[in-house]
Write a structure and sequence with these properties.
InterPro entries: FANCG (IPR039684), TPR-like_helical_dom_sf (IPR011990), TPR_rpt (IPR019734). This protein is mostly helical. The chain contains 28 helices and no strands. Among the domains are: 114 residues, no CATH class; 114 residues, Serine Threonine Protein Phosphatase 5, Tetratricopeptide repeat; 169 residues, Serine Threonine Protein Phosphatase 5, Tetratricopeptide repeat, CATH 1.25.40.10. It starts with 8 loop residues before the first helix and ends with a helix.
Length: 586
């Protein structure tokens, strides 16, 4: 409450500087808000000099103080306070404000010095050009202005590097992040910078360079586990499965240990780079995976690579984690690597099936079927909802209707896939009649889908394509079992229907020819074989390539549906055609 007095202001500003630093050191949340104490300190400086600036914003207030206050004793404490203000603005990503402030500070030191052009490209040069005022022995600082300047330089380079990385300007980002890596920071921040360098190099198409940076991050601080997850991602991109698996295994073990990092040997500072660099892009790059996510990735990669036994082990471990309340363990913002839970069950069933554990696969699929059945509506009148978007509930208009349709189709696809897997499992057990029953249940899903009266919009196209693929595989599967049971006519109908769903499908076409051949309709079989053989090569593969990737849980079903006797069938037909040609010529 005392009036401002020039002789006391140097001490007052120094106390303010120290107290703000203590506040920051005690709570990192303080750095996220504007430092009101700095504003009050500047106003008291103007008051002591007979001026006022109540109506000015912080940038205008700093400009007025540095241009009008020329008292020599106030210059050093004002510069220290200015560096602290720059820290607050850096934390808010106000890089242009920081550059302008340091231009004012440099001009105040040397009025003849030329101004740097505005813009954050000059930020580092303006901070480096600032001459740190000498620290008076009578007014000690809890953190020297020199140390603060070094931290500001590192934070500015790091922040700008992250901004350029997010904008896709990778060479500029690389240069700025390398500048930050050579700056003044803790091991924790240095590891984070190297991790960002690795991500930048990866996006530039330089995976080996990315690995070097990421390994350097782990050498600096092995607790920087996001670097390890990025290492696994780079190895996945390179196709080095063994190295990827090793990285994921190490990551899973490290997450499981959950040991806190050892106390850092770095000197402690109240104002640190960690407090100034807290941006969404950094949070995204350094997101920590939950052990369950890593366990799923291990299971998925093993299944994709054909390591069936390992895949089964990992999937069963993951399913056991569901008992621990998985929804509370992973983020629900879409950043998780986990797919929908029914899809994980279906992938686990696929792994079990490939491992020869057919009964276990049937049991897992039954869980999916039982959980999704009650969620599928008997009738969903989509057209009415599309015509009447007004709803009494807030936010329950057209968008809500589309989400409901999508969920219904997802549940329908999961249940259909469950029946499909059960059908193949029973077939592998030699139970052809039971297999036909399960394949037939899946075929009924087509009728359910049609009863929903869903317009095939682009929003629902992916789900519709999956349903059609499941329908195709089920018809082929049921047809093969009809052949096993000697019911060739019924098999023929299924294969014909399959080709209506997917014209030119090689498996359906081959099975159709085989069915005709077994019915002793050899001339038709030969004609169909010639028709499909003369089709444009890779036509069907090209058609599939234009669509969306097949869900992992359907890949094994696709492989099982492939026709296994192509060469034998082709040889029989060629012999038949050769004999027919000889009869014609004679």
């Amino acid at each position: 409450g005392l009036p401002a007095a020039l002789p006391a202001l140097p001490l007052e500003l120094t106390v303010l500087y120290n107290s703000l630093l203590f506040t920051v050191g005690a709570s990192d949340s303080a750095i996220k808000e504007e430092a009101e104490g700095i504003r009050q300190g500047l106003l008291r400086v103007l008051e002591a000099c007979g001026a006022c600036g109540e109506d000015l914003g912080m940038e205008g207030l700093w400009q007025k103080v540095l241009q009008e206050v020329t008292v020599e004793e106030l210059q050093a404490p004002l510069h220290c306070l200015g560096a602290l203000q720059a820290a607050w603005w850096l934390a808010a990503s106000r890089l242009g404000s920081v550059a302008g402030l340091f231009q004012l500070l440099s001009t105040a030191e040397d009025p003849g010095r030329a101004h740097c052009s505005e813009g954050q490209n000059d930020l580092l040069s303006t901070i480096k050009a600032w001459q740190v005022p000498p620290e008076g022995a009578s007014l000690p600082l809890v953190q020297s202005a020199k140390d603060l300047k070094e931290i500001l330089c590192t934070a500015a380079a790091f922040l700008q590097g992250l901004q350029e990385l997010e904008a896709g300007n990778f060479p500029t980002a690389l240069s700025l992040l390398q500048e930050a890596a050579g700056g003044f920071c803790s091991k924790k921040i240095l590891a984070q910078i190297y991790t960002c360098l690795g991500c930048c190099a990866q996006r530039m198409g330089k995976p080996q360079t990315a690995l070097q940076h990421l390994k350097r991050a782990l050498q600096v601080d092995f607790q920087c586990l996001p670097a390890l997850s990025h290492v696994a991602a780079v190895y996945h991109e390179l196709g080095e499965t063994d190295a990827e698996m090793q990285a994921l295994t190490l990551l899973y073990e490290a997450l499981g240990n959950n040991s806190s990092a050892a106390a850092s040997s770095n000197p402690y500072f109240l104002m640190q780079t960690e407090l100034l660099v807290q941006t969404p892009v950094l949070t995204s790059l350094l997101r920590h995976h939950h052990p369950s996510e890593v366990k799923y990735l291990l299971a998925q990669r093993c299944l994709q690579d054909g390591r069936v036994a390992d895949a089964v082990e990992h999937y069963l471990d993951f399913l056991s984690l569901l008992q621990e309340g998985l929804q509370q363990q992973v983020p629900l913002d879409g950043s998780s690597a986990l797919p929908r839970i029914p899809e994980v069950f279906l992938e686990a069933a696929s792994a079990l099936e490939q491992a020869g554990r057919h009964q276990d696969a049937i049991t897992v699929c039954e869980e999916v079927i039982s959980r999704t059945t009650d969620l599928i509506p008997r009738v969903l009148r989509v057209e009415e909802r599309l015509e009447q978007p007004e709803c009494s509930l807030p936010g329950a208009g057209l968008a809500g209707g589309l989400l409901s349709q999508k969920e219904s189709l997802c549940c329908l696809a999961w249940r259909a896939a469950g029946y499909l897997h059960q059908g193949w499992a029973w077939a592998k057990l030699g139970e052809s009649k039971e297999a036909v029953t399960q394949f037939s249940r899946e075929c009924l899903e087509d009728a359910v889908f049609r009863s929903l009266c869903l317009p095939v919009t682009e929003t629902l196209q992916a789900e519709v394509e999956v349903l059609q693929k499941i329908r195709l595989l089920s018809l082929i599967g049921r047809g093969t079992q009809f052949l096993e049971l000697g019911r060739q006519k019924e098999a023929l109908l299924d294969f014909q229907h399959s080709l209506q769903i997917s014209p030119g499908d090689p498996a359906a076409a081959s099975y159709l020819v085989q069915a005709l051949w077994k019915l002793n309709r050899k001339q038709e079989a030969a004609a169909q074989w010639q028709k499909f053989s003369q089709g444009s090569p890779g036509e069907d593969g090209q058609q599939q390539g234009q669509g969306r990737p097949l869900p992992l849980y359907l890949v094994s079903c696709l492989e099982q549906a492939m026709f296994p006797h192509n060469e034998l069938l082709a040889r029989s037909i060629q012999d038949y055609l050769g004999a027919a040609a000889q009869d014609t010529s004679s």
